[in-house]
Amino acid sequence: MKLKDYIWPVIGLAAVAVSAWLLYRELRSISLEDVIHSLYAIPTHRWILAALASLLAYAALAGYDRIALLHLRRKISWLFITLCSFTTYALSHNIGASVISGAVVRYRAYSSQGMSTAEIALLIAFCSFTFMLGTITLSAFVLLIEPEILQRFNNELPLSLSYLLGFGALAFVLLYVFGSWLQLRPLRIRKFTLEYPRLTVVAQQLIVGPLELIGAAAIIYFTLPEAGNPGFLIVLGIFLISFSAALISHAPGGLGVLELVFLTGLPDMNQADVLAALIIFRLFYLLIPFALSLLVVLFFERSQLLLRWYKKDSET
Question: In the predicted model, is pLDDT for residue 97 greater than 60?
């Protein structure tokens, strides 16, 4: 392996180490009994709502791949797309370096469907952009409706900064929509041609992208107690910041980074309660899907192995 192959794992592990140290300083006054008590205090119906929110999030994630294939004018079965998408995100969210790890899974899966390397690369880029578009869209609304959210991380930040960022994010989304509507000239980069999607595709991006993030944030919102709860929009805004920071850090599963940013954004809530909600988020959004995705990978590889054996036998 070359030196560059170690860069992102090293960055991710460093992010985990730094975040773990900062979390220790933040949470050293909290005992394990406090967190367990907070978990038991969550009503049964809120556990169910959190589970349903995770299903919504992963259903929307399947839409990422479906929309990308629609843009590429490729027809693949819904079941295959759903399983591929689920496995891709379940593995990449836990492993870290999501673009790289997700690319490996998607290449292995979609190449078996006859897609070329260039098509798979465009699909990966399109899915990443759909996520970014969803994050920017929701961030614009949160910043404009709840402009004080940035002050939760730094009291000295003016409200005008929230409005500036909010309108800037909204302008980016509108420019993208107008670019699609006007069908501007495609951008050519070496062998790749990046062209604006059709308006019908853009409309689906603007629904599916935010829907996945809303579902993921709802897992945490439903498991937080009512006492001191700032409301869903604030929780959503903090989730967008913390989840983006976790992805940028390339820490496996965003371990430590997600918790640190989230706890910083909810200083008025009981830290044990917030930590309990984040544990449930990791359980429903990361750990359970990760375990299931391993079974999907094993089943896929077994089927591919049997297919190769069948082809060899038929040739002989």
Answer: no
DSSP 124-139: HHHHHHHHHHHHHHHH
Q: 175: burial class by Cβ within 10 Å (0-12, 13-18, 19+)? A: exposed
> Rounded to the nearest 5 degrees, what angle is found at the Cα of 255, between the Cα atoms of 82 and 54?
35
Q: For residue 64, which of 140, 10, 121, 123 has the smallest C-alpha distance? A: 123
The helix (H) or strand (E) run that includes residue 52 is helix 44-71
Q: How far apart are the first and last CA of the chain?
A: 38
Q: Where are the alpha helices (DSSP H) in 146-265?
A: 159-182, 199-223, 232-249, 257-265
- What value, to the nearest 5°, has the Cα angle with vertex 258 and ends 12 and 159? 120
Cα–Cα distance measured from residue 239 to residue 292, given in angstroms and rounded to the nearest whole number: 24
Q: Residue 263 and residue 235: Cα distance in Å, rounded?
A: 11
Model's pTM, two decimal places?
Answer: 0.82
pLDDT in tens, 169-208: 999 999 999 988 887 776 665 555 667 888 999 999 999 9
For tokens 């544990």, the residue is 279
| CB of 69 closer than 8 Å to CB of 76 | yes
